[in-house]
Amino acid sequence: MPRLAATGFPALRHERRIAAVIWAPNVIWQATHDWPQLAMSAALHHENTSAADYAGGLPGQLVYLGLLMTPLVIAGFVVLWRTPELRFIAIAATLILVYVLAWIPGKVYYADGTAPAVLAAGAAATERWIARAHVPRARQWLVVGACLVGVAVTLPGVLPILPASDVHTLPASSQQSSVGDSIGWPQLTRAVAAQDAALMQGGQPPTSIFTGSYAEAGALDVYGGRDHLPPVLSGQNAYWMWGPGRASDAKVLVVDALGRLRPYFASCRLLTNYNPPYHVQNDWTDLQIGVCTGPVASWHALWPHLKYYG
Q1: Whole-prediction pTM
Q2: Residue 63: its pLDDT value, please?
Q3: What gap in Å lies between CA 105 and CA 111, rounded to an integer?
């Protein structure tokens, strides 16, 4: 395999069979659960295909990876396409990139799974480019400097390196990304626990909690242990698949889902609104916390109607 050796990559054998074996359990699970990934894809397409999403799709990909690292990404794609033994990676990366840009351009980070392979190929090509120079150190410092600057520019928008109190100064897209979305989970939990305690003191203890988002449900599960909250349920994504279990539907404390539950309960009322701390404007701004009573049917009968993806 002389051509492969010349590229500097180790020999790869039976990669297609290995990939099929690794992928098989996922395909089997999808097939036996009515293909939830297809339903999720349709929901994401509906939510992430505005004109602004399409206009910013490709630039967003480059910025997200670090704008000054773009030459490495391009070099990586070129190397992968030119190397027969590695072309399957190029095909996979290209298909995923095209899918994201065409179907869900507002979710630029959904193509990240292929980035390590593409950047690794680009890095190998860059090493050879540096070695061919009359002054290798100059090219070396150019590449390292560009990468460091690109990372420095990108990091505040993708990693929590800023104090939480400063996140509100970032663009709205960063405040509503992974950087800002997790800010306020302990405070939300305390707000829900306060309403739970107030209802208990009034002689109307909630028997379960239903949230509009899996993220809210996860936060209450993680942070709400010491508050002894009732069972936390959600109809979004995988949380719906876990079902209501043995949770009672007699009196439901509702987080960000009053509109979703109103058709199935005799009475739903707003208790309070929650806002994240530090003036952060994330997806949980002005979030409603309420209570619903008088279910028209049991949780198990209602559960098929409460599933949604997004």
Answers
A1: 0.81
A2: 72
A3: 10
